[in-house]
Amino acid sequence: MALYELTIREARALLRKGEISSVELTRAVLERIEALDSKVRAYLTVTPERALEQAREADARRAAGDDAPLLGIPMAIKDVICTKGVETTCGSRILKGFVPPYDATVIVKLRAAGAVLLGKTNTDEFAMGSSTENSGYFTTHNPWDLTRVPGGSSGGSAAAVAAGEALAALGSDTGGSVRQPAAFCGVAGIKPTYGRVSRYGLVAFASSLDQIGAFGREVADVASVLGVIAGHDPRDSTSVNLPVPNYEEALIPDIRGMRIGIPKEYFVEGIQPGVEKALREAIRTLEGLGAVVDEVSLPHTSYALPAYYLIAPAEASANLARYDGVKYGLSIPGETMWDGYRNTRGQGFGPEVKRRIMLGTYALSAGYYDAYYLKAQKVRTLIKQDFDKAFERFDALVTPTTPMVAFKIGEKIADPLSMYLTDIFTLAPSLAGICGMVVPCGLADGMPVGMQILTGAFQEPTALRVAYAYEQATEWHKLRPPLDGKAEDKEVVRQ
Amino acid sequence: MKLTLEQVEHIAELAKLGLTDEEKEGYRVQLSAILEYADMIQQLDTEAIPPTATVLPLRNVMRDDEVTPSLPVEEVLANAPDVEDNCFRVKAILG
Questions:
Q1: Half-sphere exposure of A368 toward its Cβ, with a 13 Å CA cutoff?
Q2: Could you give the C-alpha distances from A48 to A23, A26, A143, A158, in angstroms and in order?
Q3: Which one from A21, A22, A135, A153 is the annotated catalytic residue?
C-alpha cells in the first residue's frame, strides 16, 4: 500500500513503531499531489517546503519522546481558515495576495498536536456554494469522476482526502459545506455542534451558522482531528466552555438498543432512486446491529431552505462589508471613497457572492426586515423545536446527506435555486446548530452516497459511535476512487 | 415577489456593489425567483414564536478587561494597499 493511502490510525501506528518517518509520509503525499492535482485541482496553494520542515520537526519531536495525537500527519486546510504567512484567499479574487498575520485557533491547535500542513484547499468563494464552481480561481474535480463536481463549499478538502492528496483535512460548514462534499467524494466528515470548535481565524460567512469541521478516510480519523480542534477559546465568545470528551473512546462498534429515528420528510419525491436504496439498506444494517429504528416527523423541514437563504445571506451581507479595499486584498480606487468601494466590491466579488450580498441586504432593508429576516428567525425556532422534540425520543437521526450523487460540472451553475436545492438535507440541522456526521454508505451510478447521522447539541460521541459501528460492519469506506485505473477495488466490495 | 430594476439598484447601492447593467438585470430575475420561493415561509403562523438569533444558551459573554499583546502594527499593515504613518490611508470622506 502506498503511504499516501494510509489512514491517520495506520500512519500513527507505523510512525510510533519507527517504520516510517513523517518526512517519508509527507514526501509521499506531496508526490501524490504533484502527480494528480493537475487533474483534481483540490489545492489553491501547496506549501511543500513548509510541510517538509514541519515533518522534520515532527520526527524530531517523536525522537524526543513526544506522541501528540497528530504528530507527523499531513493534512490539508480549507482556504477560508487563516494561516500565518500562507496566502488565504477564501477562493475570492478580492483576497488575492492576502497573507494573514496570525493563525486561526484550529491551526494553532493542529500544529501543537504535531500535524503537518500541506497547503490550502479550493472552496466556493467565501464558502458560498455547493460545487466549488463559485471559486474565483478554478473548479475542483471529483476524484471519482473528473467530469463531476466534488461538492462544496469544502470541495477541495473532500477531494484531497478522497484522492490521497492529504490524510485528513479541515473544512467549514455553514449549511452543509462539510457534509455534502464528504458524501459526494465518499469520505467521512463531521460538522460539529455550533460552539464546539473555535471560529477565531475562520473568515466569517454567516456567523450564527459557521462551524469548522473535519474530513478523514475513516471515522476514527475524524474523531482524532475533532479531539484536537474542539474546545473553548477565549477569542471566540460563541465557543462553548464544555469539557471535550475523548472522541476516540466513543468509537465503540456496538449500537444495540440505540434509538435511531428516520425523518420521513427526508425521503421525499425527487430523491435519486439509487441514493434512497443505499440509505434504506444502510438503515437495515443499523437495525441488524441492534439499533431500534422508527420513523419520526420533522414537520418544518421544507421551510429550512427558504429560512436559510434569508438568514445566511443577511449575515453574510454584514460580514462581507469589511471588504472595502482599504485594509487588505484587492483595491480599485475611484474618484471618491465611495467609488472605490463600489469598484473594489463590484469587481472583486464573484457572481454568487454578490447575489447573496444583494439577497441579504434586501432581507435586512427597511420595510422588509420583519417579513423576511425576522420571519426566517422565527421559522428557525420552529425547525430547532422539531429536532428538540425528536431527540426526546431518539439518540440519533439518520438521513440521506443529499438528494442526489455528485452532479456534472456546469449542470446547475446557471440556476442558483436548483443549486441551493442540493443542500435541502443539510440546512435544517445547521439552523438547529446540532451535530451532523457523514459516512459513505453505497454507490449510485458509480458515485458515492453518504449517510447523514444527526445528534443533539454536543452529542458528537453518539454520532461517532453510530458512524463507527456502521463503518465496521460495512466495506464502503474502503472504496477508493478509480484514479489509478484500479477498478478492481470497486469489484471487491460489490461481491 | 417581483423586483424592479430600481429596487435592484437601491439594494446594490446599500451594499456598495458597482454592478453592470447586465448584472442588474440578471440579479433582478434571479432574486425575484429566490424571493418568490422564500415567500413559502409566509404560510407559517409564527405569531407566538420567538426568533432564534443564536442556538446557544449564551447571551452576553463578559471577560476581565485585561491588557494583552496585540498583533504588531507593521504586520497588520503589510496587507494594506495604501499606508501612511502607521495608518490605513483612505480618500477624504467629506468634501
A1: 18
A2: 11, 9, 22, 20
A3: A153
Is B15 in contact with A345 (Cβ distance < 8 A)?
yes
Query: Could you tell me the residue range of the domain that residue B10 belongs to?
Result: 5-43
Q: Mean pLDDT across the stretch A44-59?
A: 98
**Does residue B88 lie in a domain region?**
no
Contact at CB, A333 and B8, closer than 8 angstroms: no
H-helix or E-strand containing A172?
strand A168-173
Residue pair A200/A109 in contact by the 8 Å Cβ criterion: no
Is residue A120 included in any domain, yes or no? yes
CATH number at residue A11: 3.90.1300.10
Beta-bridge partners for B88? B83
Q: What is the phi/psi pair of residue A260, to 5°?
A: -115, 125
Average the pLDDT over A210-215 and give the result: 98
Q: Residue A477: which domain range?
A: 3-300+381-494
Look up the CATH number of the domain holding residue B25: 1.10.20
Catalytic annotation, pick one of A22, A78, A224, A317: A78
Residue found under cell 504586520: B75
Closest Cα in chain A to B60: A237
A354 is catalytic: no
More confident position, B1 or A447: A447
- Per the domain annotation, does A364 fall within a domain? no
Cβ pair B55:A362 closer than 8 A: no
CB A274, CB A282: distance < 8 Å = no
User: Which residue from A minimizes the CA distance to B20?
Assistant: A346
Number of domains in chain B: 1
Query: Band of the pLDDT at A226, cuts 50, 70, 90?
Result: very high
Q: Which three cell numbers stand for residue A495?
A: 461481491
CB-CB under 8 Å, A457 with B55: yes
Active-site residue A177, yes or no?
yes
Assigned domain for A123 exists: yes
A153 classed as catalytic: yes
Chain B residues whose CB is inside 8 A of the A134 CB are none
Asked, for residue B60, whether it belongs to a domain, the answer is: no
State chain A's mean pLDDT as an integer.
Answer: 96
Residue B67 maps to a domain: no
In a domain, A312, yes or no: no
Structurally, chain A folds into a number of domains equal to 1
